[in-house]
Amino acid sequence: MKNRIYLLLAMLSCFAISCQDEDIRYSIIRPDDTMCLKVSAESVELEQELGQETAITFTWNETSNIKQNTQVTYYFKMDIADNDFASSIDKIEMPAGSNSFSLTHKKLNAWLGSWKVTPGESVTLEAEVIAKIEGVSQYIKPELSTVRFNVVGYEVQPHNVFVVGTAIEGLDPAKAVRMTEEIPEEKYTWNGVMKEGTYKFILSNSSLTPSYTQGTEPGSVVFNETGTGNETLFTIEKDGFYSLTLNIETFTLESIYPTTEYKNIWMVGAATPAGWDIMKSVKLEKDPQNQVSFYYDGWLNTGEIKFPLELREDWNVAFLMPVENGTTENGDNRMEHIEAGGHDYKWNITKAGNYRMALNAYTMTIKFEKSKQEIPNEVPYKTIWVLGDATAAGWDLSATANQMFGYDYDATQQGIFTWKGDLKAGTFKLPLNLDGYGSIDYLMPSNANGEGYASLSETSIQYVSRNDNKDYQWKVEASEAGEYLITLDVMNNKIKFIKK
């Protein structure tokens, strides 16, 4: 019995000692600050124009709280003062052997933005360097060194970057092309046609410096504060459409020469010469300078339009359509590929006229550009149409398929009109207005046979007033049917038919 009592007392004694040990809290004293962190300025005002330049530099001594065969790694942190580093930036490890750390105006301002500091207001920040000591037999608490300073940030304004060079319009900064700022002070893009030559990026359209040019590695970029004449420019070796993405934060450039899977694109709708006859859809021309672009030069009526990618009587084909139904010629320029059976969105042309329509199959955008130039007063006629059963409209003056000649503003001589389209077996003449059968003036062939018909070899034209009973027409034989380019010189009364 005594042995049992002794055993019980021994167990209770051990339990009491154990409880006493758990109540003991060992405090590890942090090493004294021997690094003495310093800042290059007690107060700094950031400026956007100095974005890549150093705004402030931190320096510190190597910690003296180390012993032989130990390793020290330094880390940098920063936060709003008196916040106990609760919203600090992520801890940054310093390179081995480095005892300084600098921040640019741009980087420090970006951190102020992440802390929701109001631009233009002074704020006190606190920086900290941490010395983590490793390679010792027992744990040593990291040494800390802190410093405070005041800073005033700025509100980020649009930061212009331009493309200039012989690959575009030459090395004239006034002709430089502005890029799109996708991410402020970081990412810039530009899409466009470039030719064989060189180019670089500049910050204004009044000076070729400062600039961004080719770095030592492909796709790398260097910033040149001033021009030395030794900069390496970027090179374009093949003419065509390019997509450029410049990142001035990572100093990289991505240059893409895209291609497209689309071989043929047509247009159909009330706004087009084809009306709603899909088998007569107007084929777009492939741009000779832009490998992903298709275009149409000519008359568009008011009405709807969409772009089939194949011609089938049953309309069971894919289309290019606007992202929103009823988009006007001046509206959202985005488009999308819609497979057969999908929605049936269309563009709506609200103003008839001569257009240069450009469709980019890489950026999936479309542009309707109505001619703003006026036909010179010296030119006797301003509107010329094609009418007859040799055309898609037939003899119906109200048909949406009636197509108008386009005026060639770039011609070396005045009075040149052009028309592109299909002519089938039949006859046609050229009305100067579509106001009704009894009140139309015409351009007709100067000479015709006894039936009033002239062949396509008849190149002389004459003006015939609405009050004249003459009714001469050009006649297209079945063997002559096809796609034509008609050039009309109204100053010299000449016409030319070119079958494509």
Give a short summary of the structure.
With about 500 residues, the chain is mainly beta. Helix content is about 5%, strand content about 40%. Strands 9, 10, 13, 14, 15 and 16 form a six-stranded antiparallel β-sheet that branches. It has a five-stranded mixed β-sheet with strand order 2-8-7-4-5, with no helix packed on it.
Give structural notes:
It is a single chain. This protein is mainly beta and about 500 residues long. The protein is built from 2 helices and 42 strands. It is elongated, with a radius of gyration of 38 Å. The chain starts with a helix and ends with a strand. About 25% of the residues are buried. The N terminus is likely disordered.
Rounded to an integer, what's the Rg over CA atoms? 38 Å
Record field, number of beta strands:
42
Task: Estimate the helix proportion, in percent.
Answer: under 10%
Major sheet attributes: 6 strands, antiparallel
Give the CA-CA distance, first to last residue. 123 Å
Which quaternary structure do these chains form?
single chain
What count of helical segments does DSSP give?
2
**Which stretches of 5+ consecutive residues score pLDDT under 50?**
1-22
